Amino acid sequence: MLFRSAAVSCGGEKVGAIIEVEGLTKVYARGIVAVKEVTFAVEEGEIFGFLGPNGAGKSTTIMMLTTLIKPTAGRAFVAGFDVVREPGRVRLCIGYVSQELAVDDNLSGRDNLFLQAGFYHLPRGEARARCDELLKMMGLYERADDLVETYSGGMRKRLDIACGLIHRPKVLFLDEPTVGLDTQTRHQIWGYIKALREKYGMTIFMTTHYMEEADALCDRIAIIDRGVIKAVGAPAALKDRLGGDVVTLRFKEAPAEKIREAVAALEGLAGVRGVKHQDGDCFIVARGGGELIPQIFQVLQPLGVGVERVTLKRPSLDDVYLYYTGRELRDETGSKEEAMRARMLMRRVRGA
Fold this sequence. Notes:
The chain is α/β, with parallel strands linked by helices and 352 residues long. Helix content is 38%, strand content 25%.
């Protein structure tokens, strides 16, 4: 059972875990389980990331935490407020930037920000000052009065993030903040995200399927796959947790029984800490990987299992993901059901 901090106003009283989630579950129509009993906590002031492919349950989790959809089961608190029982108070404490751009192309950048300020009933003078501050911070001040339809994709994303900051939220939710952007623009967005934490001490909860992004930005990450959290920790700690070198083998074609015998034999080698086998690839975590490779071939030869290729390296975040999920993280589209849910949700939000 998670300890829930006492509810606080969004005026600045400090809490420990600013996001607390216990057994959160979302089941859609026809029994589609998008998120299954996830439990985690996010400390105030940290950048916390959900890492996983499209369809893993990242966006569904973030939408439950931002009160856009209700969970089927479990509990979640943001800044001490229950996302189901106190959605209005949660919304006052958070900013949310979805995957889809929410800025209006027919307005200027400044007018988009003023529009958002109006939703939060900010006094005109204060709204003007905050707009200027955010436009300068996001590198948009020189183009503030131009129509957004003339902005590049990266400029629109920066404006979208600025809109989520106009009311100075305690927690900023970013759903795939750099998806579809080129490498240079992606690195610029990373800089802005880091600046938000440094300048405002803001807690940032982000989702991503980019390994490099999670490694560069997040204090801690949760690896999520098929709606289930597989591991939580700092990127460096997760790599260290593998406990050694990573040896990857590609077996030559062989009967399934022979492959099973080969995997079992590899598990019995001295220094081996874990073995995962998926689609012909064998993923081995071991101490002293260089010395282990000759032993691998000695063990496999009498079993009649050949090796097409072998690689040796220190653990990366890709290796961590592969170890915990048994598959590589690819930039792939989500299921038809998830795409349909996303379209329905965006229509409902826009019509609200």
